[in-house]
């Protein structure tokens, strides 16, 4: 009995506190879709990613070719020649793996490129949201695109268009 009263009191306290606060929502996906610089950044990332993937695939293909040639010549190669060919194949495969890691690894070039292109856009959005929240007294602004626990939110608290307007984009 005491436990259920405590839970009920806690819920009442939370709902009373929450009702005193002002909340707003943004839809980050919607905002980003309406910012041309974001689309250009994605196109640049796609282009550089294809270029780097092509480089990695070229070296991987070279390794496969070396291996096929090795397989077809293995009977006619001396032990020393086989060792050299095997080392050459391993070195080429290692080169492809290193290049893949350099470009696409967790701290790779693609990650760095994405950061350099997207961070200014994200900072600009953050600053616009912060200004709107400060001016309108919002205690919390939630991104509905990433907040999967939001089941329903009134469109009246969505300030996405206001953010776009603050950034100089009208929709």
Automatic annotation (TrEMBL):
Keywords: Coiled coil, Signal. It comes from the Bacteria. One of its GO terms (cellular component) is cytosol. Belongs to the Skp family. GO terms for molecular function: unfolded protein binding. Residues 1-20 form the signal peptide. The lineage of its organism: Bacteria, Pseudomonadati, Bacteroidota, Bacteroidia, Bacteroidales. This is OmpH family outer membrane protein. Residues 35-102 form a coiled coil. SMART domains: OmpH (SM00935). GO terms for biological process: protein stabilization.
